[in-house]
Amino acid sequence: MLILLSGCCPSQTSGSLYGALIGSVLAFNVADFLGRRRELIVASVLYLVGALVTALAPDLVVMVIGRFVFGIGIGLSMHAAPMYIAETAPSQIRGQLISLKEFFIVLGMVAGYTLGSLLVDTVSGWRYMYGASTPIAIVMGIGMWWLPASPRWLLLCAIQGKGTMQDLRETAICCLCRLRGEGIGDSAPEQVEEMLGELSYVGEEKEAGLAEMFQGKCLKALIIGGGLVLFQQITGQPSVLYYAASILESAGFSAASDATRVSILLGLLKLIMTGVAVVVVDRVGRRPLLLGGVSVMVISLFLLGSYYTFLDNAPVMAVVALLLYVGCYQLSFGPIGWLMISEIFPLRLRGRGLSIAVLINFGANAIVTFSFSPLKALLGSGPLFFIFGVIAIISLAFIYFIVPETKGLSLEEIEAKLL
What we know:
Blueprint: H1 10-34, H2 36-55, H3 60-88, H4 94-118, H5 125-131, H6 134-146, H7 151-159, H8 165-180, H9 188-201, H10 216-234, H11 237-242, H12 244-250, H13 259-284, H14 286-309, H15 315-331, H16 333-344, H17 347-379, H18 381-402, H19 411-418
Helix pairs in contact: 1-2, 1-3, 1-17, 2-3, 2-5, 2-6, 3-4, 3-16, 3-17, 4-13, 4-16, 7-8, 7-9, 8-9, 10-16, 10-17, 10-18, 12-15, 13-14, 13-15, 14-15, 14-18, 15-16, 17-18
């Protein structure tokens, strides 16, 4: 949904990033009040308004405002979407469905790059680029309006006294039946009772306070989830992509002189590898994908550091390292980071916990993006990649010793057994 534009000025892209940071902060207070479904509806409205304002903007200031509004929608949707999927999906395919979110984000990026290449010579073609996201925002809003609320959120409201227990329980049963279809048969009431019993057992009766976010189970979940999305950014993903065009061009790929074509090429690789993650995540598990993917990322970063330090006559090695890094990132940190943060937080604290994790993600992205050029000028390209490689090794140790396996467990079982 977020379309990345080639050739846009920094204020335009930073407008979206700052908006996403604000959206993440807003989600902290509104998530549990609105519920996952209504938060996504609000996000779709912000997408629509932001896209229209940007596409019709008479000057740069209005364009940046539009991008900022669009960015708030990004922050809210990146917060609510994984929660809604996690709370409504069967445990056996939860990983697959949440990873599909990342797949469609990459698909949207590839579509944006492709559309951008077609409109690059069109006068005011950027307006069509921004306007192209409006029908998707409308489809998203209509789709979320049609879908039911999260049964787990309804049950949380029930045990916290935010409605009549019997009415909310019946509504949760109806929502579960709509979500699972005929396959659920007559077991919906039984499943809702199990959820309700487990929620009561793990103590979800009280509404979460700010101080509680940094205590007990939530602190452990925050370390796991926040650590994953932090390492997702500070292992150099934005910086590696910055070098893609020059690396491919040095290896003799003529299309590399066109940044848009490079974006499409790498986007297709990311799409394929994300698709692989979608297929295998619930069979292989979260930890094996993270450990395997990040291990190859470490090797790739040290190869890139070596290339820019003393192996500049081996461009093929740099191309291989680049493709391995991009592919393995999409097999590991890309989808698994978002998957884990949607699973690991206790229900009562999930809305606020996820908002902190999303804020860490966008904040780290902003720091890496805006500090990259000064660090490159200060240290040089080679040492910078070696630093990213060392950080990736630290992230590997973090995954091995801290991150648990959640494959096949219900959200309540994750809370009871792993936190």
